[in-house]
């Protein structure tokens, strides 16, 4: 058997599966990734600042107007729909095989596909709150505006519930992700370059022999995988889950 056939057999016969994924999971939904040749970080941002800096805490505080312009133009995809990868994972969860999705994505497409136990490692671009009084705001209210959102209660700056560069991962989210990965019998990793830490470090918490890695390109952590499948993750996950 090749790696694909072995992975399919393992998934069919197994349970307690955890999926850990990144931006590549959502590219088939029309949302660009970050580090590929056509990704956000390799596009002209129309600014003197790098995309990484514009998504940092420092930049957000110093230039909230530029930050929100970038957010609305590059990270907001209201028409995006779950693709076959999201649907396949929701199907595995419904069948009682998949116990958790740990995602680096902030788009909410796993939940839109029907997945219930989704651990959003880097937060969500669909939630906002005031930095002073913590009042919550809807994504629609923020994205449909062209101004920097301010709280209508205290006037504080409203921010998205995403982890910006220079900010730590929420410790509760971090712990949930560690527990999910360490307790998994089967770990499927896909659509991620595995170069962003601490997310990539989650692989260190899996010590079993059923790590399935699905990616378009080689990653620095291919050596840790037991089975490697190269190609379109939306198509591969659909075939693995069927």
Question: What would you note in describing this structure?
Answer:
The chain has helices at 3-13, 51-54, 57-62, 64-74, 84-94, 109-113, 139-143, 171-183, 233-241, and strands at 17-21, 98-103, 118-120, 123-130, 136-138, 158-162, 186-190, 211-215, 227-230. It is of the alpha/beta class. It has a domain at 1-29 and 82-122 and 168-242: Rossmann fold. It has a six-stranded parallel β-sheet, sandwiched between helices. The protein has a three-stranded antiparallel β-sheet with strand order 5-4-6. Strand 4 (123-130) and strand 5 form a beta hairpin. Helix 5 (84-94) runs parallel beside helix 9. The two termini are 18 Å apart. The mean pLDDT is 93.
SSE layout and pairing:
Blueprint: H1 3-13, E1 17-21, H2 51-54, H3 57-62, H4 64-74, H5 84-94, E2 98-103, H6 109-113, E3 118-120, E4 123-130, E5 136-138, H7 139-143, E6 158-162, H8 171-183, E7 186-190, E8 211-215, E9 227-230, H9 233-241
Helix pairs in contact: 5-9
Shape annotation:
elongated
Uncertain parts: none
Helix content: 25-40%
CATH topology of the domain at 1-29 and 82-122 and 168-242: Rossmann fold
CATH level 4 superfamily of the domain at 1-29 and 82-122 and 168-242: TPP-binding domain
- Could you give the distance between the termini? 18 Å
Binding site for NAD(+): 23, 27, 34-35, 104, 106-107, 122, 192-193, 215, 232-233
Domain Deacetylase sirtuin-type: 1-242
Keywords: Cytoplasm, Metal-binding, NAD, Transferase, Zinc
Organism: Blautia liquoris
């Amino acid at each position: 058997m090749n790696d694909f056939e072995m992975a399919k057999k393992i998934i069919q016969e197994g349970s307690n599966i955890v999926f850990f994924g990144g931006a590549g999971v959502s590219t088939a939904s029309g949302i660009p990734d970050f580090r590929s040749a056509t990704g956000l970080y390799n596009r002209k941002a129309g600014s003197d600042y790098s995309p990484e800096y514009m998504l940092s805490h420092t930049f957000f505080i110093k230039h909230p107007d530029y930050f929100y312009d970038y957010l609305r133009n590059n990270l907001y995809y209201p028409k995006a729909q779950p693709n076959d990868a999201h649907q396949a994972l929701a199907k595995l969860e419904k069948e009682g095989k998949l116990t958790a999705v740990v995602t680096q994505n902030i788009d909410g497409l796993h939940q839109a596909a029907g997945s219930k136990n989704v651990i959003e490692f880097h937060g969500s671009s669909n939630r906002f709150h005031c930095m002073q009084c913590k009042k919550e705001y809807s994504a629609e209210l923020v994205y449909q505006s062209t101004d920097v959102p301010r709280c209508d209660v205290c006037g504080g700056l409203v921010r998205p519930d995403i982890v910006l560069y220079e900010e730590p991962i929420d410790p509760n989210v971090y712990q949930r992700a560690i527990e999910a990965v360490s307790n998994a019998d089967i770990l499927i990793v896909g659509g991620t370059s595995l170069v962003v830490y601490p997310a990539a470090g989650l692989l260190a918490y899996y010590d079993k022999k059923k790590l399935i890695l699905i990616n378009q390109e080689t990653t620095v952590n291919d050596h840790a995988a037991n089975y490697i499948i190269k190609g379109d993750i939306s198509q591969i996950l659909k075939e693995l889950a069927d």
